[in-house]
UniProtKB/TrEMBL annotation:
It is found in: Cytoplasm. This is Protein-L-isoaspartate O-methyltransferase. Belongs to the methyltransferase superfamily. L-isoaspartyl/D-aspartyl protein methyltransferase family. Residues 1-39 are annotated as: Disordered. Its EC number is 2.1.1.77. Residues 16-26 have a biased composition (Low complexity).
């Protein structure tokens, strides 16, 4: 039996420097709203501007916008590229891989949340193919109950672990493995999202998708052009739709 991967079991979103001591007995407890802190890339205002641009571009799901504003993207890229972290651009993260544009991350997660099984009780368990630097997994952790994320490149798997460890996301599970095989131990999944594109969908993904679940992934056509594919699994079978053109790294098998 495979051991279920885990992660530190607590998340603390308090602002740095917030007092922790309890008030005197009988004292009136006042709850202060969170305020932006830090300067430069650490400022919540920088992320707020990015979120405003996402909303202006058509992202309307409040949960997605809130999650994008919560996760600090600059902490997931190399220091030399940090000043570009909140621009709508993909950035290299090493080993020929990239971190997707914020608009693409937001778009794909918003599509994922449109799954039939997520409309009433919210998004349940999600499988991410291609952890990369860990950024999208962190955003997914804010909109779903549990995230299983698979990375085939050992160096990126370790890098993502280093990036995510300070966030202490109890609902994120990092797996080093072949993403084309999915992760059957966590199935069925309410949502599956892929950060790499092949010329066909691996059968394992469709098998591990729950009825009522949704899969969002890039798919390459005969001309090599990648398009965004949305697959809904119903009791009658799979229903798919092709959306806009996208550009992702190629989907590969094996562990390296």
């Amino acid at each position: 039996m495979q051991r279920r991967p885990g992660f530190p079991a607590r998340i603390d979103w308090r602002q740095p420097g917030a007092p922790t001591a309890a008030p005197p007995v009988g004292a009136r407890r006042e709850v202060q709203p969170p305020t932006p802190h830090g300067v430069g890339l650490d400022s919540a205002a920088v992320r707020a501007r990015m979120v405003q641009r996402l909303a202006a571009s058509g992202i309307s799901a409040g949960a997605v916008l809130q999650a994008m504003g919560m996760i600090e993207r600059h902490r997931f890229v190399d220091t030399a590229l940090a000043n570009q972290a909140y621009e709508d651009t993909s950035l290299p993260i090493g080993l020929g891989q990239t971190i997707s544009k914020p608009s693409v991350v937001a778009r794909m997660i918003e599509l994922l949340l449109g799954a039939e099984c997520a409309r009433g009780n919210g998004m349940g368990r999600v499988l991410e193919i291609g952890t990369g630097c860990g950024y999208q997994a962190a955003v997914l952790s804010r909109v779903s109950r549990e995230v299983y994320t698979v990375e085939r490149l050992r160096a990126l798997h370790e890098k993502a672990r280093d990036h995510l460890r300070p966030l202490r996301l109890a609902n994120v599970h990092l797996i080093l493995g072949d993403g084309m095989l999915g992760y059957p131990s966590g199935a069925p999944y309410a949502g599956i999202i892929a950060a790499a594109g092949g010329d066909s969908l691996p059968a394992a993904w469709c098998e591990q998708l729950a009825v009522g679940g949704r899969l969002v992934a890039p798919l390459a056509g005969a001309d090599g052009q990648q398009m965004l594919l949305v697959v809904d699994k119903t009791a009658q079978g799979l229903k798919q739709g092709i959306l806009e053109a996208v550009h992702f790294v190629p989907l590969k098998s094996g562990i390296a």
